[in-house]
Amino acid sequence: MAIARYLSHPQVQIDPAVPVPDWGLSPLGLARTQAFAGASLLHATRRIVSSGERKAIETAQCIASVLGIAVEIRHAMHENDRSATGYLPPPEFEAMADAFFASPSLSIRGWERAVDAQARILREVEAVLAEPGEGDILFVGHGGVGTLLLCHLGAEPIARKRDQPGGGGNLFAFDAATRIVHHAWRAMEEVAGQ
User: Which Pfam families does the protein's record reference (predicted)?
Assistant: First the structure.
């Protein structure tokens, strides 16, 4: 029984002058990923599939180097498109995220609609899962689209109450064949210790 895991990148180096997709991991985010990379639950992982955003690729590459496997990039696994507003200070961003999840069929200030982002991430994940192969799969991406995927897998409406805890570096797991969710978002440190 193969397990699919979806991991959100951990903390990033925030720079308002740099486009958000180009942000890399912060020293804390990198340290967390390095500590997680050797977790025993990852030993059966045979594929690592990452979003094309720099922070996701850095997370994926850190783990892949420990496991000795290559990272596959799927550019359409990117976070919900927020380029219409660009960087927002944390209080304003949180208010926008609330609106994004609360009105999934609407584009809030030009952001990609949640229903469209959900369809996109689901299409990408399903395409990977449809390919032949054995072993566990690790998807590395983002909290927003990860939450949208989790809502779909759990047959639940889009809602922020399913969003990951703050800071990133969280994952959920599901059966790669049946799509049954094994657990919702949990910090990588929590699951690494099991």
Answer: His_Phos_1 (PF00300)
**CB within 8 A of 129, min separation 6: which ones?**
4, 137, 176
Q: Are 39 and 164 in contact (CB under 8 A)?
A: no
Report pLDDT digits (tens) over 105-135: 999 999 999 999 999 999 999 999 999 999 9
Query: Tell me, what DSSP letter sits at residue 79?
Result: P
Q: Which residues pair with 8 in a beta bridge?
A: 141
Tell me the residue type at 83. Answer: S
pLDDT digits (tens, 9 = 90+) for 1-35: 899 999 999 999 999 999 999 999 999 999 999 99
Distance between CA 8 and CA 19 in Å, rounded? Answer: 19
Q: Give the Å distances, CA to CA, from 111 to 82, 92, 93.
A: 5, 14, 12
Q: Are the C-beta atoms of residues 141 and 59 closer than 8 Å to each other?
A: no
Which structural domains are found in the chain, ordered by start? 9-192 (3.40.50.1240)
